[in-house]
């Protein structure tokens, strides 16, 4: 195993997913239902990033995904009142997931991950165990 690429089995793009949680409170504006009142959730966020394998056979380091989540999402949203800390928007899962996407993508650019061929592929944000919003890379491409 002297060849420097010997730990890489293939040259395919592979996506890896890591799951995180954070707790936050919010209320929905102009909504007629119980969520118009202040309430909280334990959000669950699934982050999927793809890349080509490096010389040790790894597409994306799970530790790097964790560091990105902690530095740009958890540090800003965990145990916060979302209506105060997010931009002017209704704090629906559908709005939040686009904001989260932009934060993660900006951080990946800062870390030169996109330059290395890594892509944010999918985010899924669970507001409850049975209710989620999903966003795919192709949906974020500007038309």
Number of strands: 5
Structural class: alpha+beta
Task: Tell me what the CATH architecture is.
Answer: 2-Layer Sandwich
List the strand order in the largest sheet.
Answer: 3-1-2-4-5
CATH topology: Tetrahydropterin Synthase, Chain A
Binned, the helix content reads 25-40%
Overall 3D form? elongated
Low-confidence stretches: none
Q: Secondary-structure element sequence?
A: EEHEHHEE
Please give the count of helices: 3
Task: Specify Rg, calculated over alpha carbons.
Answer: 17 Å
Q: CATH H-level name... which superfamily?
A: 6-pyruvoyl tetrahydropterin synthase/QueD
- Quickly name the level 1 CATH class: Alpha Beta
Please indicate the percent range of residues in DSSP E strands (runs of 2 or more): 25-35%
Keywords: Lyase, Metal-binding, Queuosine biosynthesis, Zinc
Cofactor: Zn(2+)
Organism: Terrilactibacillus laevilacticus
Protein name: 6-carboxy-5,6,7,8-tetrahydropterin synthase
Structure, explained:
The protein has 143 residues and is of the alpha+beta class. It has a single domain (13-140), classed as 6-pyruvoyl tetrahydropterin synthase/QueD (Tetrahydropterin Synthase, Chain A). The protein has helices at residues 62-77, 82-85, 93-110, and strands at 13-26, 39-52, 80-81, 119-128, 131-136. Helix 1 packs across helix 3. The longest helix is centred in the last third of the chain and has 18 residues, at 93-110. It starts with 12 loop residues before the first strand and ends in a 7-residue tail after the last strand.
